[in-house]
Every structure is written in C-alpha cells, then in structure tokens.
Specification:
Layout (H helix, E strand, L loop, with lengths): L3 H7 L1 H4 L6 E6 L11 H6 L5 E7 L18 E2 L6 E4 L9 H4 L4 E5 L10 H15 L2 E5 L35 H11 L5 E5 L31 H10 L19 E4 L4 H11 L8 E7 L11 E7 L12 H15 L19 H6 L3 H7 L5 H19 L7
Parallel strand pairs: 1-2, 1-5, 2-4, 5-6, 6-7
Antiparallel strand pairs: 3-4, 8-10, 9-10
Helix pairs in contact: 5-6, 7-9, 8-9, 9-11
Length: about 400
C-alpha cells in the first residue's frame, strides 16, 4: 500500500496544483516515506515543489520533547534554511505571520486515532486559520493504527480543549484526512481542503488491523508512542494521565501498562472480572511490576497491569480499551473506597477542571467510577448511545472501506 506522502511523490499529476505555490509542511518524526526518508527532505528534493516553511505539533518537528506541556521553540532548519514554527510553544494556533509564509500547507502527521492525541486539534486550528487567511490545506493521509472500531463518550458542550477539539468519540476510528472532512462540515469552514488519499489501505485486515504490518516500519509519532500495541491501547490508557496511577512513563512500555505502589494488581484483575467480564475481551492482561525512572512514582516499585493487544489472543473487534481502563478504575474504587484516584493539576493548559474530566470531555466517566450504586450497564448504555450517534455523523466522510 501507499501512504499519502508516497502517492504525492510518485504521481506527478497530484503535485500539479502546487507548482508556483509557496508550500509548507506540518510534520513530526513519523512523517516518513516508505523508504524512511523524512517527508521534508523528500518534498524538498522534488524540483516542482517550493518549500518555504515548516511546522511542528506537540513534541516538536523533531519529536524531542518528552512530556506534556513541554513546549518547543521556533528554529531555522539547518539543512533547508527555512523557518520551522512551533504550534506547541508560545502559541498553539498559527499566527498571521506564520500563515503568511505559505500558500498551501501540507499536513503529514501520523495520528493514533484518539481524540486526546493533540494532532487532530492542531488540524482543526490550522483549518480555522486557513479559512480566515484564504490558504489551502492538504492532508497527506496515513493509516489510523487503531483501526476502524470507535469507542467512548462524545465530548460534551463546553468541554472543548487542546485534547478535545469537538464532539468526537474518545476512539474515533477515522484517519486524519477523514477527520478533516468532518471538521470542515461540522464547523462550516470555508476553506480549500484536500486529502491525498492512501492506496490499498485495508483497515480490517490482519495482522495490522489499521497498521500495514509488517510492510511498514513503526516510527514513534511522539516519544511515548513506541509500539503498535501502545496505539491500540491508548484510547484507554491515556485516561491514566488524569489519575495518581502511573501510565508507565519512565518505563519501556509507556501507555501499555498502569499501576501504583500500594495497589494489589491481582485483586484489581479479579474484581474487574467480577464486575464486567465482557469488557476484558480481545487481549491478554498480565500482572506486572515496574519502577518508573521519571514522572509519577519515580524510583518507587509499582504493582500494575500490562495490556497485551497482540499475539494470537488479539481480537480487533472485541478489544475495547476505553471500557477496560474505566473498569480498572471502578475495581480500584471498589477495593479501596478512599483511594485518591483522581489527580488535580494543570493538564494541557486547563487549570480549573479535573484532568480526568478534560480527558473524557465531561464528568460522566468519573461520576460513574465514584458512584457505588452504578454498574457496568450504566456506563455501557451511555457509551453505546454516543457510539451510534458518532457512526451516523461520520459515515459520509469515511473514505476507505
């Protein structure tokens, strides 16, 4: 199969509208061609494309910033001599000066298929700025490595943030190009928007179910996205960022495992099976021990659970990471009623809301966990309703079958 960048490079007619246009690129370390050449270098080598600037999202064009809310500076690219503007620094929306540096912006970002992963928010901000300034935006489409399944709650009105661009599901099931189409319609944006589509992407096929394994190498789109398993689990494990539990930052398996000192993982697993065994399908869960080298519980032994969404036990449809991690929270609350699960700190520039609520786009998940009278069916009914609504909304924008 071919990603959007590879189609643009090999099919000269696709590049025709770029001739004579000042072109910019929004990219990160995973913005590479099939030969692992970075897209900036590959595009600059095309004689018919004039690259005048570049942009980096959260974690930077180089992907060197390890944690959330660690900002990247602007700089001049040492190879191509063009300005590289940070969209996760002193601004998160492109300024007029930045927009003046190009006529067409190419976006080549490997996404993870989760609302909280901020590249989709950056896409919306760029589309809004392009509509205001009369610029064109092209998405060079890439696979959604989490595939087509969609799960979670829709973001509620008033809960928009940098980790919640709009009323999307937590696990949205779209490519970035498809998401852009939905943004344009939902927000009624008057913008020249195009998608350079992939060729041959079959999101329902094993073994990748979204990621074309083993044909394409995995490159981290952000420092803590090291594996396909992380991408599959992320729509659940990202919620751990809003808790006092470790999400595995500071280990070699970030956002594939979670735990804390003082937690009995075996008891948690047993209680999860008691509460909602049907939410544990499609993967293997394993008790583990880990000691983070940085971030939460640094240098302290933690007991936890690793999610294994791979191997012969992996079932792409049965695996529901959002429900699985919500169930882990519910089990911890059941075993340890006074445990301080929810962490209170500034999360992605939101200072007056609990991070777990910012992540989930509302209070429903936290309230379900904390309510001793609620059961699995209560949350499942909420989520199932939202999931059906989302599928109906995005159906016209789905480009790959």
């Amino acid at each position: 199969m071919k990603f959007g960048i590879d189609c643009l490079l090999t099919e000269k007619e696709l590049r025709g509208p770029l001739r004579g246009q000042r072109t910019a690129l929004l990219a990160h370390p995973a913005s590479v061609t099939a030969s692992l050449t970075h897209s900036l270098d590959a595009l600059a080598a095309c004689g018919d494309i004039k690259i005048t600037s570049a942009f980096g999202p959260q974690h930077g064009l180089r992907g060197d910033k390890q944690d959330n809310m660690i900002e990247s500076p602007h700089f001049t690219d040492p190879v191509h001599g063009i300005p590289v503007f940070s969209l996760y620094g002193d601004v998160r929306r492109p300024t007029g000066e930045m927009m003046d540096s190009f006529d067409v912006l190419l976006i080549d970002l490997q996404d993870l298929g989760c609302r909280v992963y901020t590249f989709s928010t950056t896409l919306l901000y760029v589309l809004e700025a392009a509509a205001e300034h009369g610029k064109s935006v092209w998405v060079l489409d890439r696979p959604n490595p989490a595939g087509r399944p969609a799960e979670g709650l829709l973001l509620r009105p008033g809960w928009e943030s940098f980790v919640g661009a709009g009323p999307m599901l937590m696990r949205h099931g779209l490519t970035l190009g498809e998401m852009g189409r939905w943004f344009v319609e939902h927000y009624e944006l008057d913008v020249d928007y195009r998608v350079i589509a992939m060729e041959g992407w079959r999101p329902d096929e094993a073994p990748g179910f979204g990621w074309p394994a083993p044909d394409r190498s995995w490159v981290n789109p952000s420092p803590n996205a090291p594996t396909l398993s992380m991408a599959r689990a992320y729509a659940g494990t990202v919620m751990v960022e809003g808790t006092t539990l470790s999400e595995g930052r500071g280990t070699t398996r970030p956002l594939e495992l979670f735990g804390a000192p003082g937690i009995d993982a075996r008891s948690v697993l047993s209680t999860m099976h008691d509460i909602a065994p049907g939410w544990l399908g499609g993967c293997r869960l394993r008790e583990c021990w880990f000691e983070p080298t940085f971030h939460k519980h640094v240098g302290v032994l933690c007991n936890g659970i690793q999610i294994h969404p791979d191997g012969r036990d992996y079932d792409h449809i049965a695996f529901r990471p959002w429900r699985l991690v919500a169930l882990a929270f519910k089990a911890i609350r059941h075993i340890y009623p006074e445990y301080r699960i929810w962490r209170d700190f500034t999360y992605e520039y939101e200072t007056d809301k609990l991070p777990i609520d910012v992540i989930n786009g509302g209070t429903a998940l936290r309230e379900w966990v904390d309510d001793p009278s609620s059961d699995a069916g209560d949350l499942d009914n909420l989520a199932s309703t939202d999931e059906a609504l989302w599928h109906e909304q995005v159906r016209p924008h789905v480009n790959y079958q």
